[in-house]
Amino acid sequence: MRRTPAVLLLAALLLPLAACAPTIDPSEARESLSEVTQDPAEPEAAEEYDAEAHPEPIVEPLECLPYLVVTARGTGEPSRGQLLDPVARAISEARPDEVLRLDLDYAADTDVKEGGTVGARTLVDTLNVQAESCPDQRFVLLGYSQGALVVGDVLAAPDVRLVGQRVGELTPEAAERVLAVVLYGDPRFVGGEPTGVGDFDPELNGILPRPPGSLDAYAERLRDYCVAGDFVCQASLDLDEEPHVEYYSNGMQQDGAAFAITRLDPPSRATEDRSGERDPARPAR
Question: Which of 156, 179, 192, 272 has its CA 20 to 30 A from that of 66?
Fold first, then answer.
């Protein structure tokens, strides 16, 4: 796994992170993801969440803390106890009273096109509204499995998306505010991209690989974690569920949190006083 010295240090400090892995039906998961491209029909949500036809944001402004951390959970994960909870918590604890956490409001069920469309519109509007309402707020985006698909598609151009082609785009101001993107078990993973982290086979892609270069604008801000044998990000023919949930226990939660923390500003003196020691994180821009 590729790591910088700063990330290694922070990962060691974040070892207590933990979450319980869900039970996954690999056949059902693969089928639900494959249907995204096998069925050419648009989901029912496409018209309702069309940004051109319905330009008014579907979300209200949130609190203007310095950082907004958004989690997009995987298929079937609960809102609490998901893979991304410890990652978001570690980021919050690194900057006490400076982080607002938001779990993306979308179904995360097996109707990926329908739920993904809603999730994509919600995320686009949330980031755009916050960029306009909170001039100093910046964003950290976390996604697992289906959630990684949604986050990645929002950051990509509409013509290469698989969900949310019509939900609008991030404004330049919102896109610039994205400090870090951390994805796990991404169905749209591309093995040859430099943003990949893990022991994956670079010759293998995910079930629904995005066109190479789709996320180049975020390359320095993105970590796309994938392990060997993960049938979602490696399109493995072996439908073993274990690799797709290894992220709960293999240290990649800590590594992802550490990477995101290094992207934040140095802690204020007030933050240092509350934590009792200086945070070694430094922005990497």
Answer: 156
